[in-house]
Amino acid sequence: MVETELPEQGVVFWPVGTGDSTTIVLGGDLVVQVDLRDMKAADEDDAVVAAVIDRLEETLPQPDGKTPYLAVFALTHADKDHCCGFGDLLESSILIGEIWATPRLWRELSEDKDMCEDARRFQEEVERRVDATLQAIEDGKEPASGDRVRIIGYDEDREDHSYAQLPDEYFTFPGESITTVDGVEVSDRFEAFVHAPFKDDCAGDRNDTSLALQVQLHTDDGTTGRLLFLGDLAYPTIKKIVDYSEFHGRTDRIEWDVLLSPHHCSKKVMYAKGEDGEEELKQDILDQLEAHAGADARVISSSRPFRDKDDTGNDPPHLLAREAYESITDYPVLCTGEYPSKEEPRPVVFALEPGLGLELVDVTDLENKAQVLKAASGGRRLLAAMGTTRFPAAAFTAAAGLPHQRGTDAARAGVQQARGDKAEPAVQIGFGAA
């Protein structure tokens, strides 16, 4: 069962093999999807990958009472493992309010680069939205939800393409923040700081032009959860991002509680050629990532399970990368293809908890609550009042080979882990208010 309900506020990393599909829940009917990999294999009875579009149709908010609403779809770059199924998403019942795109696709089209069908569908949809936005402006109107578009980054050939005609407010560049989602100002609960793509990389390899973001989620009491999304970037660009932020005194923009490991836990993040031309470990980037990590920082590998040893041609994920990340964090890397087991992976879900931050939660607990709400004719808005079962990260350090507890057993284990059987709870756990 590769399913879950969405948390009231937080993030979901879907098991989709070696690829990315991340859902960020802002609250208040606003959800952001970063990348998509929805494969035909997800429809098989014994699937170990998620049918992401189906799950989004079932779990997204429906502000009008019938239409699943996705406030934003953001594509980091146009590789198939990041946009697979986008055409199906367009043809689904989901309304995509706004799309975030980089200029890279226009360059690839003009240079006749090889692109998968879903990347072309994405580009066609972005072009349609550019045209719709320009028409709305000409008519003296704001573009409607479903037509909105934001271009992130700069390309030297921009004047050759239609998006260059958009007014400045439809562009965002590295060093700037996004606090408006599908026309709604959300700075009180969400901020996406843009790190890349850099102008200097506009003509580089596709991976090197990935959209890179630091996302901050805020609760009403001021608690903040920080997420780093670095697409498929490798050591040179990631080092530039970190060095630039440190040099300009913006270290808060590279702080992180959850890091989606770039390029599906590729060793290219921390291994690169040295002066002698041989590949070597770049300890400097690991030291910098560690310096800006939160106290309980977690690394996610959105990938198939790790092999017993690295196998050139069949990686990522790389064991070398996992070992490197685990040397700078207190907890093991969470692999979407292995969590909680290879045989029955479930989405990795973090809920943003007031006073605590991003907490790893049991997806069965979210599902149980959703069933209670449905039976009581409630709604997703009540999830916040019902709380979430929280588990200390140490409880997941040896998940491999251990039975996975569900429902009340999982909740009871969480209680026992936190306080023992008989002690009075210091914090309400489970269905109570957190």
Could you walk me through the main structural features you see in this protein, from its secondary elements to its overall organization?
The protein is an alpha/beta fold and 434 residues long. The strands form 4 sheets. It has a 9-stranded mixed sheet. Strands 9-12-13-14-15-18-19 form a 7-stranded mixed sheet. The protein has a two-stranded antiparallel ribbon with strand order 10-11. It is globular and about 60 Å long. It has helices at residues 52-59, 80-83, 86-91, 104-110, 117-138, 235-247, 262-265, 283-291, 319-326, 363-375, 383-386, 407-419; strands spanning 10-13, 22-27, 30-34, 36-37, 69-74, 95-101, 148-152, 171-172, 177-178, 180-181, 184-185, 190-196, 212-218, 224-229, 256-260, 271-273, 279-281, 293-301, 334-335, 348-353, 357-361. Helix content is 26%, strand content 22%. A hairpin with a 3-residue loop joins strand 20 (348-353) and strand 21.
- The N- and C-terminal alpha carbons lie at a distance of 27 Å
Residues in helices, as a percent range: 25-40%
Mean pLDDT: 85
Largest sheet strand order: 8-7-6-5-3-2-1-20-21
Helical segment tally? Answer: 12
Give the biggest beta sheet: 9 strands, mixed
Radius of gyration: 21 Å
Shape summary: globular
